[in-house]
C-alpha cells in the first residue's frame, strides 16, 4: 500500500518557491487507499497523497485532513502524538544554510539526519506526548518561508474539551475563595511580572476562551441584547414642549425662579402669589433605557482585562522573539478583543466600582452567565500556582497533566464525601499564599477526615494529596526511597489501618492503561508499609483490577478511568462502588 505523503511547496513572503517539504509517517501498515488531492492554504500549495479527508478525526490514523477546520478551532493538517514522521526538505537550489526554525528550537521533537546528498535536509519528527498546534517553516539562505500550520492530535479523546472541563471544575470549586476572600478589585493584576513563568498556561486559557462557541458566541448575545434598566432623569424643557404637567411640576415651577419670566399678559385666574411671573421652562421627569448598570460594567471590566493581558503577551512575544503558533494566535486574539472594547455601546457604560456577585442577570441571562464563568476561570487561572514550565512543547502536555492531577483530587474528594454523605468542603482544598495566589494544599495539611458507617461498621477515612512516604517516618513508612503518591486514603477500623493509593496519569492511552503505570502501582504496594492497594486514574474507558488472590478484593493493583467532561457519572460511580466494597470487606 502507498505510504501517505504531504508535499508542502513552501514559498518565501514574496511568493518565490524555496523548495518542497515532504512529510510521511514511518512504519505505516494501513491497507486503505485514499484519493489524492491538492489544496492552497494561506498562500501555500500542498499536495495530499493517500491522505483521508475527515469531518471527525480519530486517534489512530497518523495523517488526516480536516474538511471542517472551524469546528473547535482545529487546523486542517492533522498529525498524531507519539508517532514517528520522516520530514525531508528538497530545495529548489543547493544550499548549506537550511534549517527548520520552529521545529529545531524544540530539539526534543526533531532529530536531524545527515544525508549523503547535501541538497537534502531532514530527519525524524516525533512530538512525544505533546498535543497542540504549531507550523512548518524553513530558513533558506537567510530567507524565511511562509508558515504551514498543523495540529498534533492526542491519542486521548477530546483533549481540548478535557482542558476546559478541568479548569472549569477547579474554578467552580474555588469560587468562594475568589469572590469572598479576594475581591476582583482587591489588587491590580500585574501581568508583566508573571508572563515569563506562565506564558503557556495563559495561552491555554486564551485558546479556550476564544473558541468560537465560547467568548465569541457569548459576547455576541450581549452585543445583540445588552441588559438595560429604565432610568429616570430630569430635563429642563420649554413649556410648549412639556408632555405632562403634574403636581411635582407645579411645585418645581414655583420654587425655581430661573424658569420664570415677568409678564402682564397673564392666563385667566393666575395666582396672585406668582407676582405676574409665568414659567417659560420647567423641569420634566422622563425615563430612558440605560445600559450603564453593574452587569454591563462587569462585562466591560472583563473585556479590558483580556485586552490588558493580550497587550502584555504581544509585548512579551516581540521582546523575546517568540514565534510559533501561540505568537500568531495571540495577535489574532488581540485584534478580536480590540474590536470588542471599541464597541459603541460600551462608551455609555461606566467603570466597575463593585462586583455584582449576587446579580440574577449575571447568573442566569444568556451571554452574561457564560462570561461570569470565564471570569471565574480567568481569576482561578491567573492566581493558581502551577509548577514552572516555559517550553511550548513541554508546556501543553505538562499543564494538562498537572491540571488532570488536581482535577482528579477534586473528584476523589467528591466521591469520598458522597460515601460519607456529607457536603464537599471545597474551601479546605485551597490555600492563599502570601502573594495572594491560590495553591492546593499538599501533604498532611491537605488531610480530609470522614466518619463512615457501612453495615453497622464504623470507619474513618482520611484523604491526603501528595503526602510523603519515607524511611524515617513510622506512620508513612517507605522501605526504600521517598515516594509521593498523588492521593492516599488511610482506612481505619478500630486498631486496623491500611492505605489505598491513587495516581493520576494523563499520558495513558484512551483504550487501556499503560503497563509502565501499573508497574508503578506495584512499587507503591510493595514499598509503602501498610499499603493494600494502588490504582491508576486515567482518561480512558477500561478499568482493570489485578488481585493477589482471586477471591479477595485486597491486596490489589489496577486502574480506573476518570475522564474530564464526561456526559455521565459512570467513572466516578465505579470508583465509589469499589471503595464501598473495600469497606464492606
Walkthrough of the structure:
- By secondary structure, the protein is of the alpha+beta class.
- The protein has 4 domains: 5-153, no CATH class; 175-226 and 294-383, no CATH class; 229-290, no CATH class; 400-584, Trna Endonuclease, Chain: A, domain 1 (3-Layer(aba) Sandwich).
- The strands form 7 sheets. It has a 7-stranded antiparallel β-sheet, with no helix packed on it. Strands 22-23-24-25-26-28-27 form a 7-stranded mixed β-sheet, with helices on both faces. A 5-stranded mixed β-sheet has the order 5-6-7-15-12, with no helix packed on it.
- A hairpin with a 7-residue loop joins strand 10 (110-113) and strand 11 (121-125).
- Helix 7 runs antiparallel to helix 8 and helix 11 packs across helix 13.
- The radius of gyration is 32 Å and the shape is flat.
- The model is unreliable at 181-189 and 388-395 (pLDDT under 50).
Could you list some keywords that capture this structure?
single chain; 585 residues; alpha+beta; 4 domains; seven-stranded antiparallel β-sheet; seven-stranded mixed β-sheet; 13 helices; 32% helix; flat
Q: Which residues form runs of ≥5 with pLDDT under 50?
A: 181-189, 388-395
Beta percentage is: 25-35%
In CATH, what is the class of the largest domain? Alpha Beta
Total helical segments: 13
**Would you tell me the overall average pLDDT?**
84
Instruction: Going across the biggest sheet, name each strand in turn.
Output: 3-4-1-2-8-11-10
The whole-angstrom Rg is: 32 Å
Domain count, please report it. Answer: 4
Tell me how many strands there are.
28
CATH topology of the largest domain: Trna Endonuclease, Chain: A, domain 1
Shape: flat
CATH architecture of the largest domain: 3-Layer(aba) Sandwich
Amino acid at each position: 500500500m502507498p505510504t501517505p505523503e504531504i508535499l508542502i511547496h513552501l514559498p518565501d513572503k514574496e511568493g518565490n518557491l524555496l523548495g518542497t517539504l515532504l512529510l510521511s509517517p514511518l512504519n505505516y501498515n494501513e491497507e486503505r487507499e485514499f484519493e489524492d488531492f491538492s489544496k492552497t492554504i494561506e498562500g501555500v500549495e500542498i499536495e495530499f497523497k493517500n491522505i483521508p479527508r475527515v469531518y471527525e478525526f480519530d486517534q489512530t490514523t497518523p495523517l488526516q485532513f480536516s474538511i471542517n477546520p472551524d469546528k473547535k478551532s482545529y487546523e486542517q493538517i492533522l498529525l498524531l502524538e507519539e508517532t514517528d514522521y520522516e520530514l525531508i526538505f528538497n530545495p529548489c537550489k543547493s544550499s548549506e544554510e537550511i534549517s527548520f526554525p520552529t521545529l529545531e528550537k524544540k530539539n526534543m521533537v526533531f532529530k536531524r539526519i545527515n544525508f549523503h546528498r547535501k541538497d537534502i535536509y531532514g530527519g525524524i519528527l516525533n512530538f512525544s506526548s505533546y498535543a497542540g498546534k504549531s507550523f512548518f517553516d524553513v530558513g533558506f539562505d537567510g530567507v524565511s518561508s511562509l508558515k504551514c500550520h498543523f495540529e498534533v492530535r492526542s491519542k486521548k479523546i477530546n483533549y481540548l474539551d478535557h482542558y476546559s472541563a478541568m479548569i472549569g471544575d477547579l474554578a467552580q470549586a474555588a469560587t468562594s475563595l475568589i469572590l469572598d476572600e479576594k475581591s476582583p478589585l482587591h489588587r491590580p493584576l500585574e501581568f508583566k511580572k508573571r508572563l515569563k513563568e506562565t506564558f503557556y498556561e495563559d495561552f491555554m486559557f486564551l485558546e479556550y476562551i476564544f473558541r468560537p462557541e465560547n467568548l465569541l458566541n457569548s459576547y455576541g448575545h450581549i452585543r445583540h441584547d445588552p441588559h438595560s434598566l429604565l432610568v429616570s432623569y430630569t430635563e429642563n424643557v420649554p413649556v410648549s414642549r412639556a408632555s405632562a404637567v403634574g403636581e411635582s411640576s407645579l411645585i418645581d415651577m414655583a420654587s425655581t425662579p430661573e424658569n420664570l419670566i415677568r409678564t402682564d399678559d397673564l392666563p385667566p385666574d393666575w395666582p396672585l402669589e406668582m407676582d405676574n411671573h409665568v414659567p417659560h421652562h420647567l423641569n420634566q421627569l422622563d425615563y430612558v433605557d440605560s445600559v450603564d448598570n453593574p452587569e454591563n460594567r462587569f462585562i466591560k471590566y472583563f473585556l479590558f482585562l483580556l485586552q490588558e493581558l493580550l497587550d502584555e503577551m504581544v509585548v512579551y512575544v516581540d521582546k523575546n522573539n517568540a514565534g510559533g503558533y501561540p505568537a500568531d494566535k495571540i495577535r489574532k486574539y488581540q485584534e478580536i478583543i480590540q474590536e470588542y472594547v471599541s464597541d459603541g455601546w460600551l462608551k455609555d457604560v461606566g467603570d466597575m466600582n463593585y462586583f455584582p456577585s449576587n446579580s440574577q442577570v449575571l447568573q442566569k441571562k444568556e451571554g452574561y452567565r457564560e462570561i461570569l464563568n470565564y471570569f471565574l476561570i480567568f481569576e482561578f487561572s491567573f492566581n493558581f500556582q502551577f509548577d514552572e514550565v516555559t517550553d511550548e512543547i513541554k508546556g501543553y502536555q505538562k499543564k494538562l497533566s498537572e491540571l488532570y492531577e488536581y482535577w482528579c483530587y477534586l473528584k476523589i474528594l467528591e466521591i469520598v464525601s458522597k460515601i460519607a454523605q456529607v457536603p464537599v468542603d471545597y474551601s479546605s482544598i485551597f490555600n492563599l499564599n502570601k502573594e495572594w495566589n491560590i495553591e492546593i494544599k499538599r501533604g498532611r495539611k491537605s488531610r480530609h477526615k470522614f466518619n463512615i458507617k457501612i453495615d453497622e461498621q464504623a470507619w474513618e477515612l482520611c484523604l491526603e494529596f501528595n503526602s510523603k512516604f519515607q524511611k524515617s517516618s513510622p506512620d508513612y513508612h517507605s522501605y526504600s526511597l521517598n515516594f509521593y503518591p498523588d492521593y492516599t486514603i488511610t482506612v481505619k477500623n478500630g486498631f486496623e489501618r491500611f492505605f489505598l493509593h491513587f495516581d493520576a496519569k494523563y499520558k495513558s492511552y484512551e483504550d487501556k492503561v499503560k503497563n509502565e503505570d501499573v508497574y508503578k502501582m506495584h512499587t507503591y504496594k510493595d514499598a509503602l508499609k501498610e499499603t493494600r492497594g494502588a490504582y491508576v486514574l486515567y482518561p480512558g474507558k477500561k478499568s482493570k483490577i489485578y488481585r493477589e488472590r482471586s477471591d479477595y478484593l485486597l491486596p490489589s493493583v489496577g486502574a480506573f478511568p476518570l475522564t474530564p467532561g464526561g456526559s455521565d457519572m459512570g467513572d466516578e460511580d465505579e470508583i465509589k462502588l469499589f471503595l464501598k466494597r473495600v469497606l464492606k470487606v
